[in-house]
């Protein structure tokens, strides 16, 4: 049920310029790397390139690229390459100004439904001009919450909106019921007629690019049925069902008649169902659930109702026990444990957990990673807001946005790691900078201007204060180019300068400790040489692994070389994206990328950039080499 398969299913769809959304104008006055530095542009600064939004592009475009060039001589013949997520290049295309350019390979682009931005490079006679849709076409992951409104704003639609906001995900809403509710309980419920729920669903699903649907309170069988219909009509990437039946306060939100229709209509199309103990028991005809072993059994039985994955939540387990949830993916049972926070503010934890999972799925996480990250989010939010007081009743809401409030608002990435950023990974080296008499900021600036897609600062000998100042300056440079900056090993520096993340080795602080220090929104990379280390990095909550040394290198003493074969073995075993490292340069980068393993996302280089006279030139060349190597794979 992916957007991509939906896309393929509409193979007859043609693009009609009249029905197309208005074009966006991209100015060429501030071109970005990785293509060419600004000085190489020859078109006047206000020459405009128009491109339709990627979202519309994704939905409608099968045969034509909705791209037009204006304010350039009408007769100019153009070669146009379209670059998706920086590193996937379509074959060069030929078109003329004002003409729609045919784009025959679109349905074959890997992960096309995840395209968030694109760049356009054109050759006009001998000149190359570039423009990027980044600033205008920032695709935001999107969750649709189909749930009830909670006037107290601790649960329901309001919890989902706040959770998605906290996770950097857009949330649209279809309201199924309006509850009069506060910290004392639910005073009244007004159910929205199913016909109107159906209308709301159509409004959102027919227009917006919803990635994941999350359901909460579905108070009538008719509402479940119209939802089922609409989801068949408008396929989405994933469906998360929180089978809300009874509120924490004990009030009934959906009667027992709902159980059979959930089982028949919704669970078979669900990717995840998240019952609490009472709901799991109701789904299983009143089976008593008191222990962890009961929960494990229940998870396997509920799985048979058709949901691909099941999470039985243990918030209602007896008090001395940790907050333990059971996750079942149809094969393995996992026990997810967090400490039980002593607080009365647990109203809305279930809704928030499910919407956080939906948000993480919309960002591209795997199911298990999404569930683990969401459990951490709930634990952290409960901890942060355990003592707040909202209302006089026994069950208060927690503060979903506390984490955002405690963070600097200008944070660049807000929890979104894009594996494509590993494409050209620049790792600095203080020794080399000294040798070439350049400052770290000059080195980093040249690297990102030349096309580096992520930067890691590795300062083994610098004084802490100097390291911190350098890191702050480099962050400014990187963020101005939309490039994340990581710190090698020094979590204290990363925290102090609010870097985008850290990279750690096998003898540094373990990644799970780093994750709890940095929180869910930072990038964590781990150096791995073996499949076992790669597995551990995944379990520890890392975002990517660095694998190497692929070739022998002088930058790291006593570093064992794994070779191309070792790299391939680790890539095949790794559940995380991989960047290759160690002795990679102009002459061997293509061979590395051509091993043909999809989760190898790029190469990390040190000497090939920084032990050279002109970092900018080396970065441009290396980027071009990588683009060529990855293009030839399409
Ligand atoms: N006091 C608590 N401390 C830590 N985690 C909790 C606490 N109460 C609930 N949770 C967690 O919150 C999530 C929601 O669980 P639960 O409260 O059982 O759902 P619901 O809100 O649907 O009843 C689960 O991951 C659960 O383990
Ligand atoms: C509108 C609405 N939806 C869901 C819940 C369940 O949340 P909780 O179990 O935390 O009371 C609720 N109380 N109200």
TrEMBL record:
Its cofactor is Mg(2+). Residues 150-394 form the Pyridoxamine kinase/Phosphomethylpyrimidine kinase domain. InterPro entries: Aldolase_TIM, HMP/HMP-P_kinase_dom, PM/HMP-P_kinase-1, Ribokinase-like, ThiamineP_synth_sf, ThiamineP_synth_TenI, TMP_synthase. Pathway: Cofactor biosynthesis; thiamine diphosphate biosynthesis; thiamine phosphate from 4-amino-2-methyl-5-diphosphomethylpyrimidine and 4-methyl-5-(2-phosphoethyl)-thiazole: step 1/1. It catalyses: 2-[(2R,5Z)-2-carboxy-4-methylthiazol-5(2H)-ylidene]ethyl phosphate + 4-amino-2-methyl-5-(diphosphooxymethyl)pyrimidine + 2 H(+) = thiamine phosphate + CO2 + diphosphate; 2-(2-carboxy-4-methylthiazol-5-yl)ethyl phosphate + 4-amino-2-methyl-5-(diphosphooxymethyl)pyrimidine + 2 H(+) = thiamine phosphate + CO2 + diphosphate; 4-methyl-5-(2-phosphooxyethyl)-thiazole + 4-amino-2-methyl-5-(diphosphooxymethyl)pyrimidine + H(+) = thiamine phosphate + diphosphate. Its EC number is 2.5.1.3. Residues 424-609 form the Thiamine phosphate synthase/TenI domain. The keyword Oxidoreductase does not apply. CDD domains: HMPP_kinase (cd01169), TMP_TenI (cd00564). It is an enzyme of class 2 (transferase). HAMAP family: TMP_synthase (MF_00097). PANTHER family: HYDROXYMETHYLPYRIMIDINE_PHOSPHOMETHYLPYRIMIDINE KINASE THI20-RELATED, PHOSPHOMETHYLPYRIMIDINE KINASE. This is thiamine phosphate synthase. It comes from Citrullus colocynthis.
